[in-house]
Amino acid sequence: MINVQYQAPTEQLQQLVSSLYRFDYSGHALREVERADRAQFRIMLYGQGSYRFADGNEYPTYPVTVIGPTTRPFEAIASGPVSIFGWGMLPAGWAALMGAEAENWIDKAFDARRIFGDTIMDLREELIALAEPAAQFALGEAAAAEIYRNLDGAPFEFTAMVDRWLVDDSDPDVDVLIAESGLSPRQLERMTKRYYGMPPKKLSRKYRALRAANRIAHGDSLDNSDLGLAFYDQSHLTREVKQFTGLTPGQLRAGTSKLTTATMMGRSALGGKVSPLISDS
């Protein structure tokens, strides 16, 4: 059985963290698809497993794992029960933590001890000792605030502009973003690759597909809606949704992936507390 609990970040963290969550799986072998997403910071409370990405590379679930922005769906694999506490990292949060090009870390995972050393294990032990999700969320928020304390150079203005562009139109036009930013196409591509891991056109496609997938998973029809009309036809919709979620519209409606369903329903419940880019995708 899969259970995912979500919590909206505090106002202090809203430009850095998309949401905090606790994931629990109580069954035997687990092999679930995770849709393309923003970067993730994950602390293994118990259990072990791995992440297999679209390029065939497989990474273990380290005690504390950082997953870069993902451009394709990937597999979450475990041999038995698993519990994970984590949070999604918004592009400004990635920049504040890593200070590195997101493009170089797409579809990859690494041991957080590469950044923090063994001190990050103290946070893990404290979370394990608390056990109760409410207390873990409180500690996680405090830890994230400390982790993101150095905000020098965090691109808040740029990422707010890009996020607004992604939200305001069902089929965001790159030319609109070029005009608003005042950047050349090449400069804009370099900036979005640096903070989001991909060029603006692919970023637009990713969130268009994820928003459509979310609506479909909730049983909504896209017929004659602005979002539905953003796709050429049903085949185009199916290809795009599958490319970024690993699932067809029919599989989303049927709830084939319990993890994807739990993720989308949990984030949607945060509506009004987080950006629509988070709750609607």
TrEMBL record:
TM ranges: none
Stretches assigned to the HTH araC/xylS-type domain: 156-255
Sorted UniProt keywords: DNA-binding, Transcription, Transcription regulation
InterPro entries: AraC_XylS_family_regulators, HTH_AraC
One MF term in the entry's GO annotations: sequence-specific DNA binding
A Pfam short name: HTH_18
Matching PROSITE patterns: HTH_ARAC_FAMILY_2
KW NADP (keyword) present: no
UniProt KW Metal-binding keyword: no
UniProt-recorded name of the protein: AraC family transcriptional regulator
